Every structure is written in structure tokens, then in C-alpha cells.
Amino acid sequence: MTKEQIARWNAATSTQQTLVKFESIYDGTTAATTLPALVAVTEELTELLDGIDTQFNKQQASSGVTLEKTAALQALANAGFEIISAVQSCAAATGNAELAGRADFQRGKLKRGADRKILNRSEQIHEIATAVLPSLADFGVTQAKLNAFSKKIEAFRKAHPAPRQRVNSSSSATKQLAEQFAELNGLLRKRADRLLVQFRESAPEFYNEYQSARTVVNPATGASAAEKSAIATLPTATTLPKAA
């Protein structure tokens, strides 16, 4: 969500909570006034806020996958560099120029380029080390270490297509959020606000609290610590009581 959307979400959630709090005034429970149109608005608002929360969670999911991929890449590069460094040391100790040439990988290069290139380099390192494994025992490379390296290759292989899939999901969620906030704006301005006018005198406490809840805090000054906290955990709309 954008800062503006978060501010509007907070205001809409407060508005929904106020409508639920005073629902007995307009649903006929404790007052003579029955306003089915406002009951319908409250139900639609609750459902719409739930939908926005769902899309927000989809949007946020992409960041978690990106972090997972980054961690998998770092683990792969560290393991690969450890193994190829041992191979380079072995080549120097044994005077094997051909092996030294094949094992000429720089640390930074192990994480550079497209995912497919990174995987190809890692697989090359595994093949080189496997071919001279009997000579590597004294240099700290064992079959167990190669097996662990293979698992890191597979972990990155599984992670690397996921961000694109999640980015698509995030883009779809962002588009859906824009549509939902437009719907939210129309629901509140064109229906709820106009219905509340009739409670200005008959239920001033309800009317005034509603007006206060409808105030959207201007986020133009930038995200404060409180706003950043709100991004991580959005306020929850009040659940409507089920009909008996």
C-alpha cells in the first residue's frame, strides 16, 4: 500500500468500527429508527475492508520471497567459494596448472549475472571438485561437504523462479487495491456520509464520532515510525455480529 492508502485504510477502519459500535441506533435493535440502507453500507464496508486486507497480504508476500532467494544465493556463494578455494590450493600445492585454470573463479563472480549463470557456475565448481575429490581430503573438502553444496544448489534452483511469480502476484494485488480503494471512497462519500446527515440531531454522539473517524490523516510529511508500524500490521475491522 502507499502512504495515502494506509491513511485511508486507517480512517475507513475507524469509520467501520464506529458504525458497528452504534449499529443499534439504526438497525432497529434499541431505537425506533430503522435504516436498512445504512445496515447494508456497514456490511459492505466490512467485506470491502476484509478484501483490502487480503490483497495487502498478497502484496507483502513478494518481499519475503525476495529475502528467501537472497539468503539462498548467499549460502550458495559462500559454500562454492569455500570449495573452489580448496581446489585452487590443491592445484597450487601439486603444481597442477590445468586444474588451477579450471578452478579460476573469483568470489564476486559467484553471485554475478542471471540466475541460470549462477547455477551453471555452481554446478561447474561441483564437477571440478568431484573430479579430484580423492586429492581434496587434506584440503578440507569431503563427499559430505559436496553433498551439502548440492543441496544449496537445489535450494537456489527452487527459489530463483519464485520472485517473478510473486512479483506478478504483487502487481495484481496492487492493481486490485487501487480498484478497491476507489470502491471504498465511493461507498463512504456517496452513501455512508449522506445517510449520516439525518443523525446530526437525533444521535449527535454517533454523528460526531463518525465525522471524527472519517478524518484522513495527511501523509504528505512522510512515513513516521507509527506509519511504518501500521504498514507491517494493519488495524483490523470490527467483525459484525451474526444474526441470531
What is the straight-line distance between the termini?
37 Å
Q: What's the structural domain tally?
A: 2
Number of strands: 0
What is the tally of helical segments?
Answer: 11
The SS-based structural class is: mainly alpha
Shape: rod-shaped
| Low-confidence spans | 221-234
Radius of gyration: 30 Å
Average pLDDT confidence is: 83
Order of helices and strands: HHHHHHHHHHH
Task: Give a description of the structure.
The chain folds into two domains: 3-64 and 171-232, no CATH class; 72-159, no CATH class. The chain is 75% helix and 0% strand. With 244 residues, it is mainly α. It has eleven helices and no strands.
Short description:
The chain is mostly helical.
SSE inventory with pairings:
Blueprint: H1 3-21, H2 23-26, H3 36-94, H4 97-102, H5 115-131, H6 133-136, H7 143-159, H8 162-196, H9 199-202, H10 204-213, H11 225-232
Helix pairs in contact: 1-3, 1-10, 3-5, 3-7, 3-8, 5-7
Which labels suit this protein?
11 helices; mainly alpha; 244 residues
